[in-house]
Design brief:
- With 355 residues, the chain is an alpha/beta fold.
- The protein has 2 domains: 2-168, Rossmann fold, CATH 3.40.50.1970; 171-214 and 223-351, Dehydroquinate synthase-like - alpha domain (Dehydroquinate synthase-like, alpha domain, Up-down Bundle), CATH 1.20.1090.
- 43% of the residues lie in helices and 19% in strands.
- The chain contains 13 helices and 11 strands.
- The protein has helices at residues 43-54, 74-86, 101-113, 127-133, 171-187, 191-198, 200-203, 209-228, 243-252, 259-276, 282-294, 306-313, 343-351, and strands spanning 2-6, 12-17, 33-39, 59-65, 94-99, 119-124, 138-143, 146-153, 158-162, 325-329, 335-339.
- It has a 7-stranded mixed β-sheet, sandwiched between helices. Strands 7-8 form a two-stranded antiparallel sheet.
- Helix 9 (243-252) packs across helix 12 (306-313).
- It starts with a strand and ends with a helix.
Length: 355
Amino acid sequence: MTTIHVGGAAPYDVVVGRGLLSALPALLAGVARVAVVSSKTQPDLAARVADNVRGAGVDVLPITVPDGEAAKQVKVAARCWNALAAEGFTRTDAVVGVGGGAVTDLAGWVASCWLRGVRVVQVPTTLLGMVDAAIGGKTGVNIAAGKNLIGAFHPPAGVLCDLDLLATLPPRDFVAGLAEVVKAGFIADPAILDLIEREPAAAADPRSTVVAELVKRAVGVKADAVSQDLREAGPREMLNYGHTLAHAIERHERYRWRHGDAVAVGMVFAASLGRRSGRLDDSTAARHRAVLQLVGLPTGYDAGAWPSLLDSMRLDKKARGHRLRFVVLDGLARPGILDDPDDGLLEAAYQEVCT
């Protein structure tokens, strides 16, 4: 078991290990009631979480939500708030999010808004959730105009990354989560890339010790950025590497693409953009495609989608007015910002990811 501390104004710990559900009650000390928000696809796990909480003498309100991005809707959040209201939840009560990144995003936002903020503890069940979504306090939902446009910063009281849960994931969902791990390697910790290149089969096996090491390293990268910058005004913005195009792809696909798959394509685009703007060397740019393909992630997207993708990117949260901003690399583990690039440069970079 490894504990990784997230500092800042609202510090908390992220625990990475196996068999961690028994540690949940300690994060809920002083709470009278807990709402367990979980995906409808994981009833057995939600029941186990509820039993652990009840065993500590805390009342449990189960709230079941749709799976995946279908959970991240205002109407779903409203249903959760109505459930809390019906049970008379107060500021001494708490929310526990159990599921993938979409569920933890929703649970965090529900907690951030209820009575202007109650405690939330996250129990991510996917690789994507463990290394990214459940950490850092970014919560929110999607609307028709774009992904994560409605939300709040609301740090959790703690995060339990139980690696045993990864063995229940469909292989494609696990591989999609590796995109955020690879991202952490390119922006901050190249040892992640070395490990994947050396043992690609083990990197794709959720039971391996390699995966445990990758999770700890990726969590460490995010914890470091969030500790310095909760609200994405500085170092934390670098975690958005590959995400500007990724969010546009997700919207274009009506959220039928996995987030990690979209991020993988987005990183290839960002590498091309960095190289074409004279900031990234050829070999590091080419390494993006090679590493992603090693673990079975996509590296290309539809050529005809570009006009729609460009329109979507202009609505991205990272834009400033009409100026697009992209995280690019000035070298391995040296992220920076490319501000307001020319449309011609963007299109030329996108040609390199066209299928």
